[in-house]
Amino acid sequence: MNFNKLKFGSTIGIIGGGQLGKMMAQSAQKMGFKVIVLDPDKECPCQHVAHQFINAEYDDIDALKQLGEATDVITYEFENISASQLKELVNIYNIPQGYQAIELLQDRLTEKQSLEQAGAHILPYKQLSRVEDLDKAKEQLGYPFMVKTRFGGYDGKGQVLVKGEQDLQEATELIEQQECVAEQFLNLDKEVSLTVTIGNDNQIAYFPLQENEHQNQILFKTVVPARSNKEEEARKEVTKITDHIHFIGTFTVEFFIDKSNKLYVNEIAPRPHNSGHYSIEACDYSQFDTHILAITGQRLPQAINVLKPAVMMNLLGRDLDLLEDEFGNHPEWHTHIYGKTTRKPDRKMGHLTVLTNDVDQAEEELLNYFKGRNN
Ligand code: ADP
Ligand code: MG
């Protein structure tokens, strides 16, 4: 695919003004682009970095068109925008990412079906349109299995782990709220992810395989390079997916690895991803830099080089409470604070990245600081 190459000084419109939008905007500004952000929250992190701010709901089509009129390209920082509205905008404005990836990936069911069609290796799953379908899930998947809402889930929200009969009521309540999918629960050895950027003429840039640890289904830390021999296989899975789904810009594929070192695709985020944040300091291009290069039609770097191994830790509200007095004592912590006005225990408020030649030691030291964390 080929699309417009924008001149520096052009204006980028970002739908969504959270931390991902903010870090995108910062990369864009470094390169001399202007940024206009649309977000319903006047106090969102982007408010303080955008050249212009449109305060509107994500499905306010007039506001979206206002964004299109005022900018040279539109991108988005999250996937839960209306695919049909995006389709309407794609016909009028320059949106190289298109609407297909959003349409397929914002629904866990069509995401799984697309992955299946692409021949990617995924866990057995079952569609749960009605509560009665739980019986089939029980039969075909066996305990334990996960029930996940089709739409709108993030950071483990909209998920129930069904270990046995005792959890069926909670799963039933979730299905009554929204159609779901059930998937086999895997005894995990590791989780890894691969962040990739695709640009004009199918140029492709791979970030190194990232090793992720979650706590309460929220990303806790990322270590790079991953201590795993699955990088090549992960890239092959990504190729199967990109042969099937049209991607432009930065996206991330999350993987599970089981105890026998088998790799499964978990899900895809069609945007920059939390597990790629380390790249801001640890690589010669960040996932936000390559995203901006891609959507503005510039040439992508041929390879992304890791300048130094890194450990990235997320800072939730509870971590800020715990570590408030420590930040100033640790210049080795590259600390990012997103600027969210309301602090909640499980809300992502920032992250920190430590560059190190001894990842194991850095990890151990950091874990000591996070030890008092109340999970
Ligand atoms: P989200 O959209 O919230 O990131 P995920 O499906 O990635 O949803 O689930 C969040 C986390 O929950 C995963 O990264 C993993 O740690 C855990 N998890 C989810 N599904 C499974 C599963 N089938 N088996 C084992 N762990 C799982
Ligand atoms: Mg996930």
Automatic annotation (TrEMBL):
Known function: Catalyzes the ATP-dependent conversion of 5-aminoimidazole ribonucleotide (AIR) and HCO(3)- to N5-carboxyaminoimidazole ribonucleotide (N5-CAIR).
PANTHER family found in the cross-reference section: PHOSPHORIBOSYLAMINOIMIDAZOLE CARBOXYLASE, PURINE BIOSYNTHESIS PROTEIN 6/7, PUR6/7
Name by which UniProt lists this protein: N5-carboxyaminoimidazole ribonucleotide synthase
Binding-site list for ATP: 108, 148, 153-159, 183-186, 191, 214, 266-267
GO molecular function list: 5-(carboxyamino)imidazole ribonucleotide synthase activity
Keywords assigned by UniProt, alphabetized: ATP-binding, Coiled coil, Ligase, Nucleotide-binding, Purine biosynthesis
Complex and partners: Homodimer.
